[in-house]
Design brief:
Helix content: 25-40%
CATH architecture of the largest domain: Alpha-Beta Complex
CATH class of the largest domain: Alpha Beta
Number of domains: 2
Distance between the termini: 36 Å
Order of helices and strands: HEHEEHEHEEHHHHHEEHHEEHEEHH
Number of helices: 14
Structural class: alpha/beta
Number of strands: 12
Strand order of the largest sheet: 3-2-1-4-5-6
Shape: globular
Strand content: 15-25%
Largest sheet: 6 strands, parallel
Length: 338
């Protein structure tokens, strides 16, 4: 963002406004952490702020300060539409295409409020009045910290903001192990701990509470793991029947794809999850090095994301999706075997 744009946003936020903050559909830790972090910051200036998520999200994200105030669009579309239509400012966080917010797309697209995008994914759309886009950033939460810093308000970061932003940075960096984690990321993390983020408690809330069913589902996922050594690729499948057997809840498969990527010699991993409710196969892709799963997903699976982490979907059957996946691997053989 330019200095001029920051000054305009300062002026925009200098008096209380009706503000809506929106994360992407199926929000993850970065989406919820960044929206709540911004929410707590704006509340200090007495704005009328509400977060509207397109749909529900995993229980392991439901402990963050004021999380219970988040509205779910899928539960009350009429009331949420009214809030969006009357909003003077709309912040969109952790996505850069309105297609990522599902049924909310049309009402947000036509809303008269000034739109501000804060996001770190590749190839942003041009829908916002103010766009803060940086694909080099580890997370949208890191960007929200920078945004507050650009507004010269770091002193306003309290323990609630610090907790939310720490959570998003931690989850989107794989506990600070992904290549997007920089020395600046660690400096920001240090600052957030100083401001009151309890790092060990946050990690426990996110990662160290499992249900018996989830661990059984992980066991089934690992038993379904397949390796294609000539393409240094591993993939996992889960059918709807298998999800039902282990009482699947939203978020239960979070991180499963990384087990495939952890195999020695593997540089590309995928998980394919059957969803009868959505009538699609949900796909998560991960890679090491310079192999771009963002490019592959955009080209073949109607998705996108980052170089090393992306998502997609398929309207084919699970078997046909896997067949398609395997059939395209020869096109990437050189890239996968570097």
């Amino acid at each position: 963002m330019t200095t001029e744009e920051i000054n305009r946003i300062k002026t925009l936020l200098s008096l209380p406004k009706a503000i809506v903050i929106i994360p992407h559909k199926n929000p993850d830790g970065d989406a919820i952490g960044s929206t709540l972090g911004l929410f707590h910051y704006l509340k200090q200036y007495h704005h009328n702020v509400v977060i509207i998520a397109p749909n529900d999200y995993p229980d392991f994200l439901k402990w963050m300060p004021e999380e219970s105030s988040i509205l779910k669009y899928e539960n009350d579309k009429a009331s949420c539409d009214t809030l969006i239509e009357h909003a003077e400012v709309i912040f969109t966080l952790d996505f850069n295409s309105l297609g990522r917010i599902g049924d909310m797309e049309d009402v947000v697209a036509t809303a008269k409020g000034i739109k501000v995008m804060i996001d770190h994914h590749q190839q942003p759309d041009d829908y916002a009045t103010y766009t803060y886009s940086d694909v080099s950033m580890s997370s949208t939460c890191e960007m929200v910290f920078n945004f507050i810093e650009m507004l010269e308000d770091v002193d306003k970061i309290n323990s609630a903001i610090a907790t939310c932003l720490y959570t998003g940075i931690m989850t989107d960096t794989g506990s600070f192990r992904f290549p997007s984690t920089t020395s600046t990321t660690h400096k920001i993390i240090g600052e957030l701990i100083k401001k009151g983020a309890n790092n060990s408690e946050i990690h426990n809330n996110i990662y160290d509470t499992n249900s018996y069913d989830r661990l059984q589902l992980l066991g089934r996922a690992l038993s379904n793991l397949k390796v294609i050594p000539e393409y240094r690729t591993a993939y996992i499948t889960l059918t709807q029947e298998e999800l039902n057997t282990f009482n699947f809840k939203k978020g239960d498969t979070e991180g499963f794809v990384n087990y495939g990527l952890s195999l020695e010699g593997i540089v590309f991993a995928a998980i394919f999850i059957e969803s009868h409710q959505d009538e699609i196969i949900k796909i998560s892709l991960r890679s090491k090095g310079d192999f771009s799963v963002n490019e592959l997903s955009r080209t073949h699976f109607n998705g996108g994301g980052h170089t090393n982490a992306a998502g997609g979907r398929s309207t084919l059957s699970l078997k046909d999706t896997i067949d398609k996946f395997i059939s395209i691997l020869p096109n990437y053989k050189q890239d996968l075997n570097l």
